[in-house]
UniProtKB/TrEMBL annotation:
It holds the Pfam family Cytochrom_C_asm. The chain crosses the membrane at residues 14-32, 88-113, 125-142, 149-170, 182-207, 240-259, 271-289, 301-322. InterPro entries: Cyt_c_assembly, Cyt_c_biogenesis_CcsA, Cyt_c_biogenesis_CcsA/CcmC. GO terms for molecular function: heme binding. The keyword Transmembrane helix applies. It comes from the Bacteria. This is C-type cytochrome biogenesis protein CcsB. PANTHER family: CYTOCHROME B_B6 PROTEIN-RELATED (PTHR30071:SF1), HEME EXPORTER PROTEIN C (PTHR30071). GO terms for cellular component: plasma membrane. One of its GO terms (biological process) is cytochrome complex assembly. Its main location: membrane.
Length: 331
């Protein structure tokens, strides 16, 4: 058995806690951005109204003008604009980068300490999964303005870190022979990346439902003014889900091949196998229904949300309470 580097293991546990605390600070700043959005928008529009009035007065027009039409504050292509300053959100992004770096150090330290991929139990899967969600979010931020889902992403990552460090603390150790395979890296890593993308699209679908209701009632105010249109959210969710679905398909196929090598059969009706397939069916139905059956709007959003809830069920209830051949189904 490979010896465990206890020093690195202790540093890993320490930096997991530090990262969780920093994620908490990022979450608070993103929340503050949501809370102050209405005030910032009103201030911007008041400034625009004043500038418009001054222009008309200077041109010999009346000093009192009609109300300036609401300004487009966000791009439906999720491009960055300079329409409104969002210092709290920007600080939240900066702090989240710091938290991700500390988190990455903790995961890498545990990997080196155990001399294997950090996916041998539920604690490791949740902490590495939270890291991937944070990285996926930050990578998308390089090109697209996704600050409007910052509260959700930082909140989910924070909850996963709390659950792992408090609910499922597991000392660094070796894994059973079935997991001592290169399939642990390929199969699980792709599944984690797909989960990160599914998390983003879930947030978009939730916001889509809220924005769609506001648009229908002509009451898009406050923070929702900084969120793209419901149609844009739906289109981006569809595109990202198409990418994640390919990854999830690979996860299902790779898992079957690994099962044959480890347990002698491609399919064992194991709880994790069954629920991985259920998730695949839900997202396949989502993509098919939207592409060929015209399932758009509310139905599309709820189907996407259902897929993510099945994903959460698979990684929580199934892991904790269902008998499974997968080692990380236990504590």
């Amino acid at each position: 058995m490979t010896p465990v580097n206890e020093t690195l293991a202790s540093y890993s546990e320490l930096f997991m806690l530090i990262a969780a605390l920093i994620y908490l600070v990022a979450f608070l700043f993103f929340s503050w951005d949501m809370a102050t959005a209405s005030r910032s928008i009103r201030k911007l529009e008041a400034e625009l109204q004043t500038e418009k009035a001054k222009e008309l007065v200077g041109a010999g027009g009346p000093g009192v003008t009609e109300r300036t039409p609401a300004r487009q504050l966000v791009s439906d292509d999720m491009e960055y604009t300079d329409s409104i300053k969002r210092p709290a959100a920007n600080i939240g992004v900066a702090i989240m980068i710091i938290a991700t770096l500390a988190h990455a150090f903790a995961v890498v330290a545990r990997t080196i300490a155990a001399s294997r991929a950090p996916w041998g139990n539920l604690y490791e899967f949740m902490t590495s999964g939270a890291l991937v969600i944070a990285i996926v979010y930050l990578v998308f931020l390089l090109r697209k303005d996704l600050r409007f889902v910052g509260t959700f992403v930082s909140g989910v990552v924070l909850l996963m870190m709390i659950a792992a460090t408090i609910g499922f603390p597991t000392p660094v150790g070796n894994v059973q022979p079935a997991l001592q395979s290169w399939w642990l890296i390929t199969h699980v890593s792709v599944a984690v990346i797909a989960t990160g993308i599914f998390s983003l699209t879930f947030a978009m679908s939730v916001l889509q439902l809220i924005k769609q209701r506001a648009e229908k009632n002509n009451s898009v105010t406050g923070f929702m003014r900084l969120v793209p249109s419901s149609l844009a959210l739906e289109n981006w969710s569809y595109r990202l889900n198409a990418i994640a679905f390919v990854m999830w398909t690979f996860t299902l196929i790779a898992g079957s091949i690994w099962a044959e090598q480890a347990w002698g059969r491609y399919w064992n009706w194991d709880a994790k196998e069954v629920w991985t397939f259920v998730i695949w069916v839900i997202y396949a139905g989502y993509l098919h229904a939207r592409a060929t059956r015209g399932w758009t709007g509310t139905r599309s959003a709820w189907l996407n949300i259902t897929g993510f809830l099945a994903l959460v069920f698979n990684y929580t209830i199934v892991n904790m309470y269902f008998p499974s051949l997968h080692s990380y189904a236990g504590f």
